[in-house]
Amino acid sequence: MDPKKLPIYELRDELSEALKNGNRMIIEAPTGSGKSTQVPQMVLDCGNAGPGEVVVLQPRRLAARLLAKRVASERGEPLGGEVGYQVRMESAVSAKTQIRYVTEGILLRQFLSDPELRGVSTIVFDEFHERHIYGDITLARALHLQGTRPDLKLIVMSATLDAGPLREYLAPCTELKSEGRMFPVEISYARKRIDFRHHRVWDAAADAFEQAIESGAEGDVLVFMPGAFEIARTVEAIRSKKCARGFAVMPLHGELPPAQQDAAVGECAQRKCIVSTNVAETSITIDGVRIVIDSGLARMARFDPNRGIDTLLIERISRASADQRSGRAGRTAPGTCHRLWTEQEHVARPMQELPEILRHDLSEVVLTLKAGGIDDISTFQWLEHPDPKSLARTLTLLSDLGALDSAGKLTGIGKKMVSFPMHPRYARMLLAGGEYGCVRQACLIAALTQGRSILERNKGGRTRGQRDELLGEDDVSDFKRLMRAWSFADQNGYRVEACRKLGIHAGAARTVKPLYERFMKMAKRAGLEINSRAPTDEDLQKCILLAFSDQVAKRRDKGTLHCAVVHGRSGDLDRESVVRDAELLVAAEITEIEGRDLNVKLNLCTAIEEVWLEELFPEDVEEITEAVYDPRTKRVFSKHWKSFRGLELKSNMSPEVDPDQAAEMIAEEVMAGRLDLYKWDDQVEKWIARVNCLAAGCPDYGIPEIDEEARRAMIQEICLGAVCKKDLKARPVWKTVKSWLNPAQLEIIEKQAPERIKLPSGFNAKVRYEEGQPPVLSATIQKLYGLNEVPTIGFGQIPVMVEALAPNQRPQQKTQDMQSFWNNAYPLIKKELKGRYPKHEWR
């Protein structure tokens, strides 16, 4: 198709005018309208953006490269000339480059070296509805820069966007909208819910493919799967179908070599079936697709701030993402979309995914912001404020890595870490490699942990035996075996057969080498000395420890794989780890494994020594002596323990305890009802109720209330000297309780809150005191004869509630108006009871 016939071209004149008259705009255009390839060209060609580069931010590396290649081809230029791309550790740009496609983090780092972004005329934020972290942050920095550079143009583009909040954020801005030209897409759903545990998602997709092709559907097929593993299985399942013989079935995801990616999106002599991650959901247009098969799944990265764990779980996509995917079938002609879920399930899906800022690790972003002079992260001009717990956890991690000081300021180490375009912990590892003479090993470890593991799991005893024989046994670090496995694969040319014998994934191992080489170049550029000799085990262990000190763990006991982890977390050591016998270790990965249950696993572990923690992190090692209560023996002990960031390293118990601390802990157990203070009986509670009744009813007389705090103070005083349950049996109570009042107040209590009141009948009636209730006097009706006024206590200020009882002592009436009782209630009570109790007096 002629690019100038794409729907987005209807906005060319409006865009040119908006660039001439303003510096902020929002462009909304549907998928396939051509905005990702054509808007940057229109900006450059109209001349109203001023001199300088047009930088296009893309959420994904694969999309940035493919779009740059497409635009360069359209302009008849070689890639890296007028049009280029730059992603993490890979670029094709030159002094001639005028349109530069970049991943979002690239431009944010450019702010560090050039805060004014000299040479950049326009920043285009593509696919902004995906709300990636770096897109949000870069937009905020760019808006701030416009304060000193009003000539800088900002264009925010999206296929589907709730423009309201963004409009307010960018105000004043111009909004442009292209309706596009979409062909109708017929959407079908599964007739009943598919349980992917029993009918695998790749088999369900292959069945849907077979049904679509045999029904006569035309055009190429695009299948959406959550990740590379599911894509590989889907490709196999579809190729096994007879109806797929005329198709080129190809995978598409970010881990593939560029040639395979190009083949998937390029022209083909036969019909194609592309099995892709959500990279094909937006940005990349694949011509000829008329059939979409959607698993409805995606791998979503989320950060758990409560445990500090990164998760990468398969989740259901939102309805907005499903609409994006189905739209791919109506790009060039009417199409169909087969969704592998029911229509009822579709209604229950969320409308939109959460922005990454609310579900992702923030450490690299925060470190970059700190380096850019943003000291107070909480006051940064966020488009969407991150979760406070996640932000707090990020700051803790950066402090643990030594990047921030106690005041949250960037340290010298932190400034060095920023120069490495990688996660802060791996930046710290490379710096530690320079300190301990193991830069090569640090670079290789960093490369090995960026993708899938090169060692396959659960390969059986024979494979494990061959692996041990050829790779050697080691009890220091899982990384040593991983590095030896990669060296074996590299030396054998990544031949599948050679690697399979040792359970090495040849494809995964092949992807490590370019990463390793890039990290090595990065280390050289940073001035790190590249070691030629192998480091000692201790040097390598310390290097790893410095990068993962926030994930130090201690085995709870040798009979279990369960470990306690710093900052109050826990997890299970991987059964295949070589450091199963280590008491203290550091885990490079703490992951949630999705299955029947959700388990937290400690992977890629390295044994460490306690003395290294004191050597490397002296400020984080504490020695504490405190009283602790043992619920098993019901006794308080003195515990002396050493901890590292809240993780107990070792401890010992002593029966010698501080009496005040012991009293406080014993008192807490009594207050909680787990221990009994034997002489604190019902009489004590009744006396306290009398005191509180007078304190509430006669506030002018200064009687102090005995509340929960006062009870706690009394009980602590009574428990002073007690260290266990047995000591409570002989503790005197009354002396301490009554000492709450002075002698004059005690005398008032006895007189003004009496235990009994004498009635006209001569009967001494007992008064019942209860918290929050008026005092109650109970007596049989016969003993109440002659009582025409309600008695009072507390200097006549507190009326007593009179409870009239039948001869059998059962309550008949409560009153605080005796005249009304005798005139109205008593005749009815007398009529009912006189026949049942004829021997009693009835006046």
From TrEMBL:
<dbReference type="Pfam" id="PF04408">
    <property type="entry name" value="WHD_HA2"/>
</dbReference>
<dbReference type="Pfam" id="PF00270">
    <property type="entry name" value="DEAD"/>
</dbReference>
<dbReference type="InterPro" id="IPR007502">
    <property type="entry name" value="Helicase-assoc_dom"/>
</dbReference>
<dbReference type="Pfam" id="PF21010">
    <property type="entry name" value="HA2_C"/>
</dbReference>
<dbReference type="InterPro" id="IPR048333">
    <property type="entry name" value="HA2_WH"/>
</dbReference>
<keyword id="KW-0378">Hydrolase</keyword>
<dbReference type="InterPro" id="IPR011545">
    <property type="entry name" value="DEAD/DEAH_box_helicase_dom"/>
</dbReference>
<dbReference type="InterPro" id="IPR010225">
    <property type="entry name" value="HrpB"/>
</dbReference>
<feature type="domain" description="Helicase ATP-binding">
    <location>
        <begin position="16"/>
        <end position="179"/>
    </location>
</feature>
<keyword id="KW-0547">Nucleotide-binding</keyword>
<protein>
    <submittedName>
        <fullName>ATP-dependent helicase HrpB</fullName>
    </submittedName>
</protein>
<dbReference type="GO" id="GO:0004386">
    <property type="term" value="F:helicase activity"/>
</dbReference>
<dbReference type="InterPro" id="IPR014001">
    <property type="entry name" value="Helicase_ATP-bd"/>
</dbReference>
<keyword id="KW-0347">Helicase</keyword>
<dbReference type="InterPro" id="IPR027417">
    <property type="entry name" value="P-loop_NTPase"/>
</dbReference>
<dbReference type="Pfam" id="PF00271">
    <property type="entry name" value="Helicase_C"/>
</dbReference>
<feature type="domain" description="Helicase C-terminal">
    <location>
        <begin position="208"/>
        <end position="373"/>
    </location>
</feature>
<dbReference type="Pfam" id="PF08482">
    <property type="entry name" value="HrpB_C"/>
</dbReference>
<keyword id="KW-0067">ATP-binding</keyword>
<dbReference type="InterPro" id="IPR013689">
    <property type="entry name" value="RNA_helicase_ATP-dep_HrpB_C"/>
</dbReference>
<dbReference type="InterPro" id="IPR001650">
    <property type="entry name" value="Helicase_C-like"/>
</dbReference>
